[in-house]
Amino acid sequence: MTSKIAIVILNWNGKALLEQFLPSVIERSEGATLYVADNASSDDSVSFVKTHFPQVKIIVNSENGGYAKGYNDALKQVDADVFCLLNSDVEVTANWLEPINATFENSSEAAIIQPKILDYKNKSQFEYAGAAGGFIDKYGYPFCRGRVFDTVEKDVQQYDDVADIFWASGACFFIKSSVFQELGGFDEDYFAHFEEIDLCWRAFNKGFKSKYVGASTIYHVGGATLNTLSPKKTYLNFRNSLFTLMKNAGGLILPIIFTRLTLDGIAGLKFLLKFQPNHFVAILKAHFSFYWHLPKLLKQRRLSTKRKDYYATPSVVWAYFMKEQKIFRDLPKC
User: Fold this and answer.
1) Which of 167, 247, 311, 317 has CB 3.0 to 4.6 Å from 138, enough for a Cys bridge?
2) For residue 119, which of 230, 193, 221 has the smallest C-alpha distance?
3) Do 120 and 221 contact (CB within 8 A), yes or no?
């Protein structure tokens, strides 16, 4: 039986992106229902979609709650077996849904799936945000098959497989609607960045599996909503990573958090040495926000189910910067 898939594109003042990329999604997503969920845009995105793409359903959120709240609010209004959360800056390819649907149908334990994510600006290499599926190290630092920190691999079919992964990219995130509802959706304290890793980690702790399907390909622009050089992005990534680690990691958490905070401090000093004080300040703000939210995070931790075997390598920071192991296949495995 074919799953009923709803593709939901979250939009905020993104008329230009919708004009560029929505046609490929409409043309190449036969059998799926398409939605644009608008996060209280001030441009004419909604009227543009209504006029030019009447086959696309519109959901209008009352406020811009970011990625997390935006999708939580929108998906309450979507009836489907599988939600596909798709960034507005993504070009999909022909038949991209077929391998995803087949994996859901043939693998009952698959709850979350991501396709191969290549760089729209350089289609021969993987894209930073997701690549060929994500993992984390003991201290909560994320990395991907095909991308470790700033080292991005070329696509030479080395990841043309179906594989278990730890987290799937929010750029193109398939999840069974029943699982999304059981997990309570995204944590809205995150606003944006790392919320998909938190959701996948909570799914993992409950015994659900996330998978990568290399037979399905998309091209992602990346950084279209928040530039990679933005101090706000640095703040959200460091803060939300700490949130996620505290809530979900198994084992003795205090030594892990202490080590993580120390590593963050070293990263902040590197920003100072590179004459990027705004990013140093962003990390400080991230830590203060973490301390402010700590009582709530500890409560969430007490209520969660935790598994100890969450990390794929002990320290990706040590491997990458000290041992110069910059490719996924070279990283030490646990």
Assistant:
1) 311
2) 221
3) yes
> How much of the chain, in percent, has pLDDT values that exceed 70?
98
Maximum pairwise Cα distance, the chain: 57
Name the residue type at position 33: T
CA distance linking residue 244 with residue 247, whole number of Å = 5
Closest of 199, 204, 198, 279 to residue 241, by C-alpha: 198
Asked if 280 and 272 count as a contact pair (C-beta separation under 8 A), the reply is yes
Find, among 195, 191, 176, 178, the residue nearest to 248 by Cα. 195
Q: Share the mean pLDDT of the chain.
A: 95
Tell the residue number behind the tokens 């098959």, with chain if given.
145
The H-or-E segment that residue 232 falls in is helix 231-248
CA–CA separation, 135 and 311 (whole Å)? 7
Token pair 């189910």 in the structure block, residue: 305
* Residue 95: C-alpha distances to residues 6, 20, 30, 241, 292 (Å): 15, 19, 8, 34, 47
Residue-wise burial string across 225-245, b where 16 or more C-beta atoms lie within 10 A, e elsewhere:
beeeeebebbbbbbbbbbbbb
pLDDT tens digits for range 93-152: 999 999 999 999 998 899 999 999 999 999 999 999 999 999 999 999 999 999 999 999
Read out DSSP for 121-158?
TEEEEE-TTTTT-EEEBTTS-EEETTEETTEE-B-SST
CA distance 295 to 131: 34
> CB under 8 Å to 178, separation ≥6 — which residues?
none
CA–CA separation, 33 and 285 (whole Å): 41
For the question of whether the overall pTM of this predicted structure is more than 0.70, the answer is yes
